[in-house]
Amino acid sequence: MVLGHRKSTSVEESDVGEDETVVGKEEGSVLSHIISQLRPGADLSRVTLPTFILEPRSMLERITNFMAHPELMLTLPLVEDPLKRFVAVTQFYLCGWHIKPPGVKKPLNPILGEIFTGYWDYADGTHGYYISEQTSHHPPKSSYFFMVPSHHIRIDGTLKPRSKFLGNSVGSFMEGIAIMRFLNRKERYFVTQPNMYARGILFGKMKYELGDQAIVRCPETGYEADIEFKTKGWVGGAYNAIGGYIRQSSTGRKLYELSGHWHGAMYIQDLSTGKKELLFDATNAKPSMVKARPLEEQGPRESQKLWNITTNAIKKADQKTATEDKTRIEDEQRREAAERGEGSWRPKLFKPAPAGDEESLDWIINADVDDKTPPEKQIEQILAIAPIMPGQTYQSQQPQQSQLPGQSNGQIPPPVQPAQPAQPALQPQQRVGPVALQSQQTPQPLSQQYQPHTVGGPIKRTDSLGNEETFIDAES
C-alpha cells in the first residue's frame, strides 16, 4: 500500500490540512472492520482496501512525479563542476515530493503485466519518454525506464513497496532503487525513497507523512547525500521537515547541510563558508505532468484504459461502481494466476538486471538503446519498444497465449523520427537554486512533431520470453 493525498469532502476545507483526511462515519466503519482483523506488523499487500481511500491513478503513472520538473532536470548533464552537478541532482531529487492531491490516498495497485507509457513535450522542443510495467504482483514490483535522448539523461528503476499495519498508522516501506544516468559523462546516481505513513487511521484525522532516510549516491564522483525526512514526534518537531548532508563518500567529510520542508522551502548551507541559500521552493512550483496516448489507442492492459471505469467512479465519489469494477479486475487477475500456475510468468518489456552494483534493480528495459547514436536514432529505438506517442498502436507476431490482452488485435507502432531537428541545447545552470529553460518556445503536440519512419524495413526486437515482435508503420 503506497499512500498519496486527497482531501475528503465530508468536512469544510478550512478544517482539514492539505495532508489530512477526515473519514465519515460510514467510511470509518468500513475501515474499522478491515483493521479489526489485523495485528500490528501485518503485511497489507494482500488486503483489499475500500475505494474511498484510493487515488484515481495507478502506481505506474504516479512514479512519473519524479520526472515532473524538467526545468531542473534537463540542464543537469551540462553542469561542469562535479560537486555543483551533484548538488543540482540533489535539488532535482527533492523537488518532486510536493506533487500531490490533498489528503491521504493510495494509488491503485497495478496488476501483473500492467503497462503505462507516456511522454513530455519540453519547452526547447525536445521530448522525454517513459515506459513502465508491473513486473511482480506478490511481492509488488513496478519497473520503469525513462530517457531524454537529446539531453543524455536515462533513468532505470524498480519500486518495491512493502506495507504494514502499525496500530493507529500504516507504513509503506519504499524499497527498491532508481539509477539516473548522464550518458555524456558516464555517471550514475543511485537514489532511494523515503517511507510513507498514514497516521490516525483508527481515531482522529488521517495524516500523511514522509519519513526515514533516503540516499543519493554517485560512485563515479564520490559524493553522496544522506537525507532524513522527519516525522513529527509526540512532543516536538514539525510536519514535512527534512535535514541531511552532502558529503564525500570516501572520507565522510560533510560539505553541505540540507534543511527546510519538502512541501515548501528547502535550503542548502555550504559548510566551508557558512553561506546558506534557497535550494528549492515548492510553494508555487508547477510540475509538468506526463502525457499519455488517447484511451482509444490504448490496449486493455494499459493503466488508464484498464482502470478507466474505476478512476472515473472514484473522481465522482461513486464508491459502488468503483468497488465493483476494481473487484472485477482483481478477480480476473486471480483467475489468470490460477490458470497460469506458479512461476510461469515473466515480464514482457523488461528483462533481469545484470549482476553487479545494479543488480538490485531486479528488472531493466528489454531493449538496447544505443546512446552513441544520434538522438533521432535513439528515439526510433525507444518507440520500437512499446507504443508511447499518439498514433501508435501495437501488434505482435508472438503466440496468442503469451500476449497481453491489449496486444492481440491492434496495429503496430511505427518507429519514428523528428520531422524537424531539435532546438538548441539548454545551457548549464549557473547557481544552486531553480533554473529556467533557455527556450520559451511553445512545443508542437508530439503527434505533429513526429511522422512515421518510411526509410528501411521493419524493426524487430525479442522480448524477455524469447518471442520476436515487429514494429512497422501504423498505416502499412
UniProtKB/TrEMBL annotation:
One of its GO terms (molecular function) is sterol binding. Keywords: Lipid transport, Lipid-binding, Transport. Residues 12-21 have a biased composition (Acidic residues). InterPro entries: OSBP_sf (IPR037239), Oxysterol-bd (IPR000648), Oxysterol-bd_CS (IPR018494). Residues 315-345 have a biased composition (Basic and acidic residues). This is Oxysterol-binding protein. The keyword Repeat does not apply. One of its GO terms (cellular component) is cortical endoplasmic reticulum. Belongs to the OSBP family. The keyword Transport applies. GO terms for biological process: lipid transport. It comes from the Eukaryota. Pfam families: Oxysterol_BP. Residues 392-411, 419-430, 437-452 have a biased composition (Low complexity). Residues 1-24, 314-355, 392-476 are annotated as: Disordered.
